[in-house]
Amino acid sequence: MFRFGNVSLGIVGFTNDDAPTLVSPGAFAPFVVPLPNSTAAVNAEAARLARRTDGIVAIGHLGATAGTLDNPTGPLLDLADNVSNVDAVIGDHTDFQVLTTRSNGVLTTENRSKGIRFTRVRLVFGQGNDGVVYMTADFHKPWNIGVTPDAPIQARIDDLNAQLAPVFNTVVGESTVAIPRGDACAAATGRVDGRACESLVGDLVTDALRPAVQLGLRAHELGRSRGPISRARRRTARRTSVRRASTRFRTRRDTSRSRAARRSGCCRSGTWLRR
User: Fold this and answer.
1) Is the model more confident about 194 or about 119?
2) What contacts 15, CB < 8 A, 6 or more positions away?
3) N or C terminus: fewer CB in 10 A for the chain?
4) CA distances from 152 to 2, 56, 155, 164, 244 (A)
5) What is the domain class of 2-140 according to CATH?
6) What are the domain boundaries of the chain?
């Protein structure tokens, strides 16, 4: 709970419901998931905070998986549509831009991932016990035009880049195609997060690691691969995979699946929402 002058704002955190199954036993300690699903957990904590706050925001690791900017669908919206005592819900996780007010009046947002967008959420509180009387949000693309870099930080970045140059600037292989992180199943499944089926980046990393760890079968968790190996990035990204594995790798054939996987999407414009 945070105080801003005479206003008290409650913040409720949540995560994806299957999170305990994605980590080793005990990895959440000392934190305990008290309820069987994120919506129930948010509602329980919001009910506890409601009597002591003027407004409540829920923020966590659930996102949209389909739909549009102002009419999305997915786990984030399932939560937002079923919360109580919550004014705004801020999501994450699926690289999907969301800006919508739900039928229950809850303002709901999510950003594109990896820092390529940020969203400003503003809550206006009324007099006395009126609580939140107005909400709005707008999202933006970060930029540094006309901004002078912080000298000590830039010097540190330059030093690190110089140390990495002999490793990352060494060509260790060639590919005639881009190697996307996402998959080719969006049309068939309706998912746009690139996680419905086989990933070529996952194939590449796994093939590189198999000889190093002397296993006939190895699975790769795609969350560790944060982006595609494009034509411009291929040298650096491939070198990263190979250096960690201390071995060479073989690229996969340019099958119909990989050709379809090289398609990419674009972006959407911003909007204002009023309540």
Assistant:
1) 119
2) 38, 60, 61, 62
3) N
4) 33, 39, 5, 19, 30
5) alpha beta
6) 2-140, 151-261
